[in-house]
Design goal:
Order of helices and strands: HHHHHHHH
Distance between the termini: 53 Å
CATH class: Mainly Alpha
Strand content: under 5%
Helix content: over 70%
CATH topology: Ferritin
CATH architecture: Up-down Bundle
Number of domains: 1
Radius of gyration: 16 Å
Structural class: mainly alpha
Shape: elongated
Length: 159
Amino acid sequence: MAAKTKEPKKVYLISIGIALAAGVISALVSMGKMEEYAALRQPPLSPPGWLFPVVWTVLFILMGISAARVYLNSPEKWPPELTTYVIQLVLNVLWTPLYFALNLRLAAFVLLVILLVTVAIMTVQFYRVDKKAAYLQLPYIVWLVFAGYLNLATYILTG
């Protein structure tokens, strides 16, 4: 444990960097697709397009902070909770090409539900190691529910 806590700043920087890298990958896939998205019939409560990258940046930073807290507060070299964390990051990145590049909105919604369940499981796992790490995931869960609504609604409205 001592080796893990010697450089917590480094752990936080690496962890946040990994999370933000996942966000950058998603952003690159959706680049140029926001105009197409804006042209779709939008459901009520659809936020302006500029809000998505802002919210996702904050959420990826919170994910990175949470993962770092779990890593630093777990006695294990590789906490099993971080495996769930990596899985949800991969699922998160996979959603973007399904929705934007391939226009498979129903498949994207199904993936989003799987992502939401995975994040809920991860949050419970994080809670057992570090309560603050779990609480930092609550905005992510709320946003995923909202994103699910937007995803399903655009699928229904656009056929």
